[in-house]
Amino acid sequence: MEPQNNISNAFCSSLLLFSMNLLFLQHVSTATHLGNETDRLALLEFKHQVVNYRDGTLNSWNDSLPHCQWQGVTCSYRHQRVTALNLRGHGLVGSISPHIGNLTFLRFIDLRNNSFNGEIPQEVGRLFRLRHLNLTNNAIGGAIPVNLSRCSELRIIELATNNLVGKIPPEMGSLNKLVTLFLRANNLTGSIPHSVGNLSSLEQITVTFNNLEGSLPIQLGQLKRLTYLSIGVNHFSGMVPQTLYNISTITSFSVGDNLLKGSLPANIGLTLPRLQLLSIGANQFSGTIPYSITNVSELQVLDLPENNVKGPVPNNLGDLKNLRILNVGINLLGTNTSQDLSFITSLTNCSNLQRLDLDGNNFGGELPNSIGNFSHQLTVLGL
Q1: How many CB atoms lie within 10 A of CB 175?
Q2: How far apart are CA 383 and CA 374, in angstroms?
Q3: pLDDT class of 338 with cuts at 50, 70, 90
Q4: Which residues are CB-neighbours of 178 under 8 A, at least 6 positions away?
Q5: How many beta carbons lie within 10 A of that of residue 182, not counting itself?
Q6: Residue 182 above 50 pLDDT?
Q7: What is 217-273 written as a DSSP string?
Q8: 92, 50 in Cβ contact below 8 A?
């Protein structure tokens, strides 16, 4: 009888294991269904807050189709959870529903180039898987939600060209995976928080066209991966931190139209070897144009107007073979001597030069005959 008992026990064990697996699968199925229903209802609430969509974009958002087939919606293959919402450029008018926070599997949101108004809902902070948020070119107001700092997977934040007010939340310094931060063309006030130095992955930052003020935090120099810095048309004052000039990865350095002062480092051509754009116009910079700038072989734009830069213009600017724009107008350049404009001969080697502004300085002497040797690319000449 003992073998029969063993068979019976084995059968019971198998039956128990099968039942447990069945219950588990039923539980997973129920959870998946509930999750899918949560996503569907959240999307319908999102649609409810949109009062106009000119091209019928949201017409497919109804019960005749599964929500994963709705236009602009992407779902995961396995669990059919919403992972992306891409509705850019469809003329959508309305506000962003707080129910967007229920789409907890979202990784990608792109609502740029619409007419969304209202505020960014605090519930966005519940999207802990979110990597990409683009709300550029809408009419969104209010402050940047502090809760956005909870989205620790964020790589890209693009909120440019809206009506955002208030300060840049210091809490955003916790987003150590953030690569891109675009906040240009809003109504932001206050200063750049010191915590920005904690954004160890940051490569691009633009806060141009706001009402920001104060000094630039020295912590900006900690951003060792930074390639693109654009902070122009604000009210920043004081000196540019020397540590910023030591970030060798920078290709675009734009700080024009502020109240900044100081001088360009003598070795800038060595510390910023990848520079393609240097724009410091309409500030209070002094000093001279560093001769080392001619070491930056990829430089395309050298924009220094409306400052207090003095002294001679380097005679070897022609080494900058990729130079397209040279604007040094309205400064204190030159010495009122006959050799002041000799650098122009070198510039005729810049075959890509399209604009040359030299007016409003202290140049003496006559224009060299070589001025007739400029490439046909040159379309603007300010003397």
Answers
A1: 24
A2: 14
A3: confident
A4: 154, 155, 156, 157, 172, 199, 201, 202
A5: 20
A6: yes
A7: PGGGGG-TT--EEE--SSEEEEEPPGGGGG-TT-SEEE--SSEEEEE--TTHHHH-T
A8: yes
User: What span, in angstroms and rounded, lies between the C-alpha atoms of 41 and 63?
Assistant: 11
**Is the distance from CB of 112 to CB of 64 less than 8 angstroms?**
no
Q: What is the mean pLDDT of residues 119-129?
A: 98
Give the C-alpha separation, 76 to 275, whole Å: 41
Nearest of 288, 287, 338, 347 to residue 315 by alpha carbon? 347
- CATH architecture of the domain formed by 18-278+290-301: Alpha-Beta Horseshoe (3.80)
- Amino acid letter, 61: W
Domain ranges of the chain: 18-278+290-301
Residues facing 157 on adjacent strands = 133, 181
| Helix, strand or coil, per DSSP, at residue 94 | strand
Q: What is the pTM of this model?
A: 0.89
How many angstroms separate the CA atoms of 22 and 206, rounded? Answer: 54
Q: How much is the pLDDT for 5?
A: 55
**Maximum C-alpha span of the chain:** 120
Answer for the pair 313, 335: CB distance below 8 angstroms, yes or no.
no
CA dihedral of residues 39, 40, 43, 47 (deg, nearest 10): -170
CA distances from 383 to 328, 331, 356 (A): 11, 13, 8
* Spatial CA neighbour of 163 closest among 197, 198, 138: 138
Residue 181 phi, psi (nearest 5): -135, 105
